[in-house]
Amino acid sequence: MRLKDQHPELFRQLHPTRNTGVDLDSTTNSSHEMLWWRCPAGHEWRETPLQRRSPAAWKNGNPEACLYCVAPGCLVYSCGHRRFQSSESTFRVLADPCRKCEVTEHARLILDRLDESAVAAVRLLDTSPHYALFCATGADTTPWWEKIFPLVEAYFVRMVSVYVAIAAVEHRPTLSCSTSSLLGACMLRILDALPPDCRDAMHKAVPDDAGHLHPRLLPGWHDIEIGWALKKLGFDILDTPLDADIERRLQFCEQQRFSATGELPLVHLTGRHYPPFTHLPRDRESGASSELRGFRPMQAPARITAVRVTLGDSAPAGPDDPLGRTHVGYTAGLPPQELWERGRGVWKLRADHVAASTIVLIVYDRTVVLVASIAGLTLHRGGLAILGEPLTDHPLIGRLDPLHTPNPLAHGVIKGEVAERGGREPERRTRSSPGRSVPIPLPRKGS
């Protein structure tokens, strides 16, 4: 609905001369556009039509009330946004915009400088030994690196250009964080988009002081709200489509997906703030001549894949128990081998989850009571049973369940120090038809 038709009295309070370039007759009553208003008493201020007609408490039931007339405890910024303060005894109009609008304008200036910052960004990459080492490691360890490298390099130029633009807008002599921290954050972002089998080998090229990119937080010394403002203006710090772009190219290169012409799938960078740089003269190998003084590679985070089963209280087993047990469930004081027999089956787990895991956690009352290796599995009509041996000295025993979920069965990855110390390599798995089990070898890692 038009404001003119729905709220004619408010429409008459629109300022007759200060709303230049705005078609007031077509303005809707839900518009978020800042307009100038003038009340019958002659007060002038900026506000959106949606704010103007809202039944706010300070209006005391009169939607046509004027801020100056009835809201003395209010600060109105030059951008039109306002803030009520009970400590204020007067109505004040400030000459400066509010904090959010200041940061948004700051981010807009940064994005305006993005294209012209590409030259400096490319120069920084060309002279960086960290970037040269990362590219060389990718070429040596990652299949089809040359096919995804143009997209990888475009992402690096994009992010470095942002920091060059921030330094220019804020009149900084240098970037707001160290080059190794910035490039390391970009490297970790690229690793997240690569297949898991490529990540460990690539981690040795990531600097130990690498920063971290978050959806609304950029590493470095600058306004913490810049990331939020860039996101608001359409600049995706993480560039979330990067994962899909790299995955499509890898799938094509691995001959899993072909186009009719045999060409790589297109990457649509429109609106993603990738500055133009491909026409610039490049010397990607110049950085390799620089010595990496004090370089400390980042260690790949320790991780171990596990399945978790939850036991109830001890109870007699069924008469046709497929494992021949007399009791199932947990009771205190059981020997590890007896507890393992009670806990290894029969579960409705997915066989591929068990085959992909290295340990099984047996949990009672949200506490790990036993950890066992996984050597294989047997299939039964009621589910499957796991083959393995108890690991009586495993550091997870006695700790809270690391795969805490409401479901009594779980499959996941454990990271950190515990993953470095625990887990054994699987040796074999078993497969069975109802009534008999036939063991078959599990594939070893790396085979």
Question: What is the global morphology?
Answer: extended
- Structural class by SSE content: alpha+beta
Q: Give the strand order, joined by hyphens, for the main sheet.
A: 10-9-6-13
| Number of helices, counting only DSSP H or I runs of 4 residues or more | 15
Ends apart, CA distance between termini: 68 Å
SSE run:
HHEEHHEEEHHHHHHHHEEEHHEEEEEHEE
Radius of gyration: 32 Å
Tell me what portion of residues adopts beta-strand conformation. Answer: 15-25%
Give the averaged pLDDT, no decimals: 83
The biggest beta sheet is recorded as: 4 strands, mixed
Helix coverage percent of residues?
25-40%
Low-confidence stretches: 422-447
Number of strands: 15
Characterization of the model:
The chain is an alpha+beta fold and 447 residues long. Helix content is 31%, strand content 16%. The chain is built from 15 helices and 15 strands. Strands 10-9-6-13 form a four-stranded mixed β-sheet. A three-stranded mixed β-sheet has the order 4-3-5, with no helix packed on it. Strand 3 (74-76) and strand 4 form a beta hairpin. Helix 6 (118-126) packs across helix 8. It is extended and about 90 Å long. The termini are far apart. 30% of the residues are buried. Mean pLDDT is 83; it is low at 422-447.
Write the layout of secondary structure elements.
Blueprint: H1 3-6, H2 8-11, E1 35-38, E2 44-47, H3 49-53, H4 67-70, E3 74-76, E4 82-84, E5 91-93, H5 99-112, H6 118-126, H7 129-141, H8 145-169, H9 179-193, H10 196-202, H11 226-232, H12 241-253, E6 303-310, E7 315-316, E8 327-328, H13 336-343, H14 351-355, E9 359-364, E10 367-373, E11 376-380, E12 383-387, E13 409-415, H15 417-421, E14 428-433, E15 436-441
